[in-house]
Amino acid sequence: MPLLEVINLKKIYTTRFGGTPVQALTNVSFSIEQGEYVAIMGESGSGKTTLLNIIAALDKPTAGDVLLNGKSITSIGEREISAFRRDNLGFVFQDFNLLDTFSIEDNILLPLVLAGKRYDEMIGRLKAIAEKLKISDILMKYPYEVSGGQKQRAAVARALITRPQLILADEPTGLLDSHTTEGLLKLFAEINDDGQTILMVTHSIKAASHAKRVLFIKDGEVYHQLYKASLSDEQMYQRISDTLTMIATGGARGE
Amino acid sequence: MSRSLYGRLAVNNIKKNAQAYIPYILTCIGIIAMFYNMAFLTTAKDLGSISGSSAIRNILSFGEAIIGIFSVIFLFYTNSFLIKRRKKEFGLFNILGMEKKHIARIMFYETLCIAIISLGIGIGAGILFSKLIILLLFKIISFKAAFGFEVPLTAVSTTAMLFIAIFAVNLIYNIYQVHLSKPIELLKGGDVGEKEPKTKWLTAIIGTICLGLGYYIALTIEAPLDALNIFFIAVVLVIIGTYCLFTAGSIAVLKMLRKNKRYYYKPEHFVSVSGMIYRMKQNAVGLANICILSTAVIVMLAITFSTYIGMEDILRTRFPRNIILTMGGVSEEQVATLDDIIEKQTAAAGVIPKNTVRCRFVDFYTIQNGATFTAEQMINYYANNRAVIYFVLLDDYNKMEGKTASLKSDEALLYVVHGDIPADTISFDGLELSIKERLKSFDAADTIGDRLVDSYFIVVDSMDTINRVYDSMNGNGTGTLEFSYYYGFDVAGGKSVQSTLTASLNKAIKDAGIDIYAECVEGAKDDFYATYGGLFFLGLFLGILFIAATVLIIYYKQIAEGYDDKKRFEIMQKVGMSRDEIKKSIRSQVLSVFFLPLIAAAIHVAFASKIMTKLLFVLNLTNISLFAACTAAIIVIFTAFYIIVYALTARTYYKIVS
Fold first, then answer.
1. Contacts of A54 in chain B (CB under 8 A)
2. Which of A148, B543, B582, B610 has its CA 20 to 30 A from that of B171?
3. Contacts for B356 with CB less than 8 Å, ≥ 6 apart
4. What is the pTM of this model?
């Protein structure tokens, strides 16, 4: 059984005063196995973020379903949804979304505190993760005191600390410089090697080239997909690049 | 750029920032209207024609000054809040190519626009309400209302000048603020200040000490008139303490909570404690302001309200009987003459005196030390251990009370009006009298005895004994002692009966060549109503003003916080906090921010209550339960009002956050 199954997802946004409805997702289906590292690519407005929000249970689809471990997440009630999200999903955002009122340590611990874990257990998990992500020395600092790369590492630590089934990353490298981006992508690969399933939405070819599989979305549908298999990062980069060109020119290559 | 463009931009800016500017303009209008009314009342001709008007005028000009000072501080505060929020906008103008002098010009037009609207509507509303206000004042101080409507030009010009000056100062401040900053700072203007506040232990300790000292003074004060002097010191200490504790103390406490890991890392404390640290950093001064304003409003209203409500009590304390005659240095013949005059005049007026109190006594001002008394030339109400001793002759006592007591020359009967003599022998700087009996009741003593200091009535066998006491205390035998005489009685009948009788008494006394006046309660009533009614009116007026100010501070705080918190709560929701948890957390934080000042104010009032009762004592109000009831009623009304404001603003807050 796949870890995540997205079945015929459809999302139509209607404006409140009867404006023209906007179809963000037409018909999206795919599945992700345990331990996969999948990137979803697409241009601005292709429906990437809508898709991610629905998988994250932050938004409801108009039609279709999302199954995590065979369980439909669209049918979870408002009451349990937060706990579900906390226990099963980890988030990494483009703008880090760290709270400026908390130290880095408290930011990372936030989901565990909300889950009502014991302090000793929290600290144990924190130590292990901080060491792995090399952020042990900035734990007591505040978000405004550390660099963008360190912030994003802290955000990754916050996503990992709940030991989620699936990590959802939304343009995680969007605000980072090339050097820091490289570091973060390496980190993602390492985490994935440890068995962590990752779903990343991006329009950076470089970021996508580190993933094991890349899905392309256009006009609210899965248009194409690429498997990395044994390709190197560079080869993968080239193939993604070619695919994007093809999509952009409307598939009319060779004219 | 053409002039009309600046004007249009200015008007547009105000419209765009309506959420912040409408309350500001409404406040300006309200304050201007109130100030105009106060200025109007101090100059109103209607008031000039009635008795007691100078007392009222003094009270009202005091009020005018307070409102004036308050307007300056408050409008400056509100303005600085507004300009902080708008820095981003001005930064954008700057980046889009507008020079700072252009921005200054836009600001000038904005201020002009606001000033014209506020002054126009404010003074207009003030004039409209002025008749209502003066009628209310007259009702409160029991004056007959006069017909007619007046608009004193001095009031209009004072108001206009004061507020034009305030607007000008604010404009200069705003221009200076924009001038100082760089465009990029202007753009970020709203976002600075996210650093975690430091714990200022020294400030917290100073605050605790100041507050403790202020409370201690308030609690230990004994001499009533001391209260007036020391009250001021206590108030200053408590104000300093409040500011220090709100700013530093709150953060110190919250950080200590955060240090306690097992407490802090709980879902219900985690978000609230860390959120409160930032909230307190940004709001501490505002909350301290609210706390002090609330305390001031409650104290002021409690005192003025209870004196107004307790007017009859006050009059009864000041005039234990309807008609009173007091005379010092009275001879035996004069006493007889006075008794005779009173008897004849009351009979002539056809009234029967009731509850008559008559007493001849010699009073000494002394310093009391246990059961030992030493001489004091003047009674000093500011000092402790001061006591008045009234000596009454045994014959007079027996006659008054219908007793047949007898005393030896070294014996005395003691009646304690207020205070305590903890021994059976009283020493007057060496001369001792033994207490034969402690009297249970003594009507005249209750009526005459001084209430502000300890006072004792001592009945002795003869004038000779009083002389010996006097000599012992003053160390020479040259002084001659004189009796004082007190004559008070009630009459059935209202103002006219009392006034006529008092007039005829005074005439007869003058004809007899005795130099005293009879006073009647009805004659004093007008003055009392003018004074206490005026104070109550002022209290009500200032109370409304202060409450309105509090409301506005809270409103602005909520808006500012709402925008800050919006993003925070979005993140928390993504990380796995449910809507309910967020709502609960918001509610607990907003509640603490809201009710912390109110609770602190209630505690201040509780500690101040002793000093307040002492002050009321000076004002002749001895009915403590009335005062307690008034204070409680005012706190309840104030709280109810506060809760309504909380509910209204909390709704605005939720709207912004979600």
1. none
2. B543
3. B321, B487, B488, B489
4. 0.73
Whether A111 sits inside 8 A of B270 (CB atoms) is no
Of A97, A113, A144, the CB nearest to B194: A144
What is each CA distance from A98 to A93, A137, A150, B561, B568, in whole angstroms?
A: 9, 17, 11, 18, 9
Output B46 or B486, whichever has higher pLDDT.
Answer: B486
Q: What are the C-alpha distances in Å from B589 to residues B51, B192, B279, B558?
A: 54, 22, 8, 11
Interatomic CA distance for residues A207 and A183, integer angstroms: 11
Which residues on A lie below 8 Å from B274 (Cβ)?
Answer: 99, 101-102, 106
Q: Three-class SS of residue B473?
A: helix
Would you call A111 and B576 a contact, using CB atoms and an 8 Å cutoff?
yes
CB contact under 8 A, B572 and A158: no
B-chain residues near A93 (CB < 8 A) = 574
Residues A51-90 pLDDT 10s: 888 888 888 888 889 998 888 888 887 778 888 888 888 8
For the stretch B231-261, pLDDT in tens is: 788 888 999 999 999 988 888 888 898 888 8
B369 three-class SS: strand
Residues B515 and B482: their CA atoms lie apart, in Å, by 15
How high is the pLDDT of residue B242? Answer: 92
Q: What is the pLDDT of residue B61?
A: 86
State the helix-helix crossing angle for B521-575 and B267-309, rounded to 10 degrees: 170
Q: What one-letter code names the amino acid at B589?
A: Q
B184: tokens are: 């990029």
Give the helix ranges, DSSP H, for A22-147: 48-55, 78-88, 104-115, 119-132
Kindly determine whether residue A110 and residue B275, on different chains, have CB atoms separated by under 8 Å: no
Q: What is the CA B630 to chain-centroid distance, rounded?
A: 13
Q: Which of A97, A106, A114 sits opposite B267 (nearest CB)?
A: A114
Choice between B548 and A132, residue whose per-residue pLDDT is larger: A132
CA of A213 vs chain B CAs: smallest distance (Å): 26
Structure tokens at B628: 């307690």
Q: How far apart are CA B388 and CA B396, in angstroms?
A: 19
Does the beta-carbon distance from A114 to B581 stay under 8 Å?
yes
Q: DSSP label at B430?
A: T
Q: Which of A105-109, B140-144, B156-160 has the lowest mean pLDDT?
A: B140-144
Residues of B in contact with A83 (CB under 8 A): 576, 578
C-alpha A153/C-alpha A162 separation (Å) is 15
d(CA A168, CA A3): 13
- The interface pTM score, or ipTM, of the predicted complex is 0.78
CB contact under 8 A, A144 and B265: no
